[in-house]
Automatic annotation (TrEMBL):
One of its GO terms (cellular component) is cytoplasm. Its cofactor is NAD(+). Keywords: Cytoplasm, Decarboxylase, Lyase, NAD. GO terms for molecular function: NAD+ binding; UDP-glucuronate decarboxylase activity. GO terms for biological process: D-xylose metabolic process; UDP-D-xylose biosynthetic process. Residues 9-234 form the NAD-dependent epimerase/dehydratase domain. This is NAD-dependent epimerase/dehydratase. The keyword Transmembrane helix does not apply. It comes from Pseudodesulfovibrio aespoeensis (strain ATCC 700646 / DSM 10631 / Aspo-2) (Desulfovibrio aespoeensis). It is found in: Cytoplasm. The keyword Translocase does not apply. It comes from the Bacteria. Gene3D superfamilies: NAD(P)-binding Rossmann-like Domain (3.40.50.720).
Amino acid sequence: MITMKKKRVLVTGGSGFLGSHICERLLAMGHEVLCVDNFYTGRKESILHLMDNPYFEVLRHDVTFPLYAEVDEIYNLACPASPIHYQFDPVQTTKTSVHGAINMLGLAKRIKAKIFQASTSEVYGDPAVHPQTEDYWGNVNPIGIRACYDEGKRCAETLFFDYNRQHGLRIKVGRIFNTYGPRMAMDDGRVVSNFVVQALRGENITVYGKGEQTRSFCYVDDLVDGIIGLMEKTPDDFTGPVNLGNPGEFTILELAREVIDLTGSKSQIVFKPLPSDDPMQRKPDITLARKAMGWEPKIPLRQGLVKTVEYFRRCLETA
Ligand code: NAD
Ligand code: UDP
Ligand code: UDP
């Protein structure tokens, strides 16, 4: 019989939307999980169901400060991801990405742990290359309102690759494209949760700009497969960066109509100003992920939206 070694895994941002799913999956795989979070956008509700598991531990801690722990692997996800939250305290957002990366890399170096960085499609900015391949360097406004997030994540990538070259650290960098699904907070502010909650409440659906801008939406279970696959299935010399997302591309107006159709809502679409530097198009080229780990998303938008609508319906019933 093959017995898998139980690993001790640190997940920063572990009570957030993606982090809670990663913690859950790692525990299901038989690992020990240390969830580190300052609960800025993360919520206890997202990890309550894991609290009875003796192999799950939670530490309230801000990753901009040093952390001492002994683990085998680190998933670094700490960072607010929704524009309204990362723009609320932009200086703290940059610190979280940059100081957070330095501390987690310093920790990984000392204990010789393999470390994953949750990077983002935002490193491509408002992309001039479409779909985006990993060798595209991007088009980011370094002084705009999104820069605290975009440039913070770009600098974090720089740090990961320098720790890899300078200290031989085992790194994995995943560039995550828009992901949605159960456990997003109702007030998260990103487009899928906004539209679904608005539709279920019968409120106006707020489309920013003309709604012609595109995004490619990945269901959370597919994304978790991709992240875990990157850590577990690729050799040490495969560092990434690798795009993780669903190549199905939709305009924001199409998304709004799909949500209205699915929920049978009487909500009206209203148009609001487009925030500055909002990227016009975004779609991952996932050739590299397919080749490196045989990964591709399986859940199309409509199917994922059905599960997401069910989730938010339950939240609204119990709210
Ligand atoms: P989220 O806001 O739900 O989760 C982020 C978590 O990090 C929260 O639990 C928050 O409390 C925690 N956090 C923030 N600052 C911290 C700090 N200084 N110290 C400790 N914890 C801190 O967002 P998410 O969607 O789960 O995103 C998780 C990660 O994935 C982020 O790094 C984000 O940039 C990246 N990402 C997400 C998406 C997406 O579509 N969901 C896309 C690209 C990249
Ligand atoms: N660090 C940490 N935990 C550790 C080891 C290091 O938080 O177990 C932090 C440390 O405080 C430092 C950062 O990681 O600020 C970078 O560490 P590194 O050893 O790379 O650099 P140095 O300490 O030489 O600046
Ligand atoms: N958006 C929108 N209405 C909303 C929230 C967002 O039209 O209520 C738009 C937003 O302007 C952007 C797209 O939807 O063009 C995706 O926004 P989100 O904040 O989800 O992610 P990001 O812009 O970081 O990709």
